[in-house]
Amino acid sequence: MKIALYFLSLIWLLPPNTSEDQTALTEDEIKAVLERHNYWRADVGVTEKLEWSDEMAELAADWAKKLKRKNCGWEHRPNNKYGENLFKGTAGAFDAAYVVDAWAGEKADYNYNRNKCKPGKMCGHYTQIVWQTTKKVGCAKIECDGMDIWVCNYDPPGNWVGEKPY
Predict the structure, then answer these.
(1) What are the two backbone dihedrals, phi and then psi, of residue 117, each rounded to the nearest 5 degrees?
(2) Is 6 helix (H, G, I), strand (E, B) or coil?
């Protein structure tokens, strides 16, 4: 009896699960991710809507956790066979819609006719969002040192050199 009580008291003394590696998006966040991706796709005439992929979300979660273990590193997964967008911002300050819209904001720096970004600008996050042959997206986020790191993966990937997104 003493052993069991001692064991139980140890459990009560453990700190609560802090979910430090919590990466799953809420249902509302998933809806916002899909709504904003599909909004930007429709904006340029891409009618096929992206679908949520648990497989892509798991891949994104795995990378988010690795970035956290790398002292909140900021780099794309090497040799990733899927498309990937990253976002980092103050924890809790940016919702899912804002994150997708931030990537899509690169549209201003993309010239469709030339299929190029303005010099010194990035637009690959945007073109991945609107890439016509991409069918699935899955995302995750993790808090690290007061920042949220968002990772989204896309299947099939976009941004093939020499090809236009739509």
Answers:
(1) -85, 155
(2) helix
Of the candidates 81, 65, 84, 85, the one whose C-alpha atom is nearest the C-alpha of residue 73 is 65
- Mean of pLDDT over the chain: 90
- Given a contact cutoff of 8 angstroms between Cβ atoms, the answer to whether 165 and 98 are in contact is no
What pLDDT score was predicted for residue 18? 43
pTM, whole model, 2 decimals?
Answer: 0.87
Residue 95 corresponds to which tokens in the numbers above?
A: 């919702």
Query: Any idea which residue has 């609107």 for tokens?
Result: 130
Q: Which amino acid appears at position 1 of this protein?
A: M
Beta strands (DSSP E) in 29-135 are: 51-52, 83-90, 110-111, 116-117
Q: Interior CA angle at 98 toward 78 and 139, to 5°?
A: 40
